[in-house]
Write a structure and sequence with these properties.
Shape: globular
Distance between the termini: 27 Å
Helix content: 25-40%
Strand order of the largest sheet: 3-2-1-4-5-6-11
Number of strands: 13
Radius of gyration: 20 Å
Largest sheet: 7 strands, parallel
Number of helices: 11
Structural class: alpha/beta
């Protein structure tokens, strides 16, 4: 069996390549020609096809003869001027991939599409926990590309019989990223990146509260964020190892076809739990701040993935911090 992974040099792609390789699959990676992560994949005996999703000839070469496709590649960009590149890479690129499968009559056992909780989006949820039936109302163009790609995948299933399945990823990170303000998970638990987030969301009063509580030069200060009643913020994320296991199940389980699943960690956690544990484990200072306005409350319902796929994520916030401090990821 051959599994093609796009975005194979990313955190999720590398882990998934190792999981599929350990199961005996031949793994093929579709990577950009100048991707610095290419050599590590080659050392792991992964077949490399170099090219971009805009190169139809390269895409045709990548899909030829594969049994499964895990489509992880996507641009993650925000801000002015990003929309055109997001369209070209995420929407047009996904179209080229699906179109190549049809054109070459590739007999796939599974087409997996990586989507995102940005389609809801989680930061603006209408109710909690967020299940797959939550309305889709993305506020970023990135989220819009993911919603569009979901529609592409299931259209190609209806029109051409491609066995598609979709996972909406929670924020996903390697364990060590929780120790860094610039890590995907750490950016929600440190003062400096949260100040930037509030400014980007048009919440100057929240950013001002952080300015008053912590000088801007203290980049490594943890933030124990509280709402106006003193209750801590809550977050839900996923360790990359759990996510790779969930994708692996979706690539193999026939019940995944035609379905959308939330993939996230075992449960949400409070900022108090996370920040106090990080402080105790590392000695990093933290500041407790009451923040005006709508608090962050994120909780994903993963019961569908648990019941249909047998998805059983193992890494809660305590074990993620323990692994980060021990250097495991």
């Amino acid at each position: 069996m051959t599994t093609l992974i796009t975005g194979a040099t990313g955190r999720v792609g590398r882990k998934l390549a190792a999981v599929r390789g350990a199961k005996g699959d031949r793994v093929r990676a579709f990577v950009l020609p100048d991707d610095p992560g290419r050599e590590a994949l080659e050392r792991a005996d992964v077949e490399i096809v170099a090219g971009s999703l805009s190169d139809r000839a390269a895409v045709a070469s990548a899909v030829a003869g594969v049994d499964r496709i895990a489509h992880l590649a996507a641009a993650m960009l925000w801000g002015e001027g990003a929309d055109r590149e997001l369209f070209e890479q995420n929407i047009a690129g996904t179209f080229n991939l699906l179109d190549a499968v049809v054109e070459q009559k590739v007999e796939l056992k599974r087409f997996f599409l990586a989507s995102s909780d940005e389609v809801y989006p989680s930061l603006m949820a209408k109710f909690l926990p967020i299940g797959e039936s939550h309305p889709l109302n993305p506020y970023s163009f990135y989220g819009l590309t993911k919603e569009t790609n979901e529609r592409f995948a299931f259209y190609y299933q209806r029109a051409h019989g491609i066995p598609a399945t979709v996972a909406r990823f929670a924020l996903t990170a390697r364990s060590e990223e929780i120790l860094r303000p610039d890590g995907w998970s750490g950016r929600f638990l440190f003062v400096a990146p949260m100040r930037q987030l509030f400014a980007a969301l048009g919440r100057p009063e929240a950013a001002d509260a952080l300015n008053s509580a912590c000088p801007s030069d203290q980049e490594s200060t943890l933030l124990l964020a509280l709402d106006e009643e003193g209750a801590p913020y809550e977050f839900h994320m996923c360790d990359v190892r759990d996510l790779a296991d969930g994708i692996d199940l979706m690539l193999d389980n026939p019940s995944a076809v035609g379905q959308v699943f939330n993939l996230s960690g075992p449960s949400q956690f409070s900022y108090r739990t996370a920040v106090e544990a990080l402080h105790e484990a590392t000695g990093m200072p933290f500041v407790e701040v009451g923040i005006p306005g709508q608090p962050i409350r994120i909780a994903h319902d993963i019961s569908k993935a648990r019941s249909i796929l047998g998805y059983a994520p193992k890494r809660d916030i305590g074990s993620i911090i323990e692994d980060a401090v021990a250097g495991r990821s």
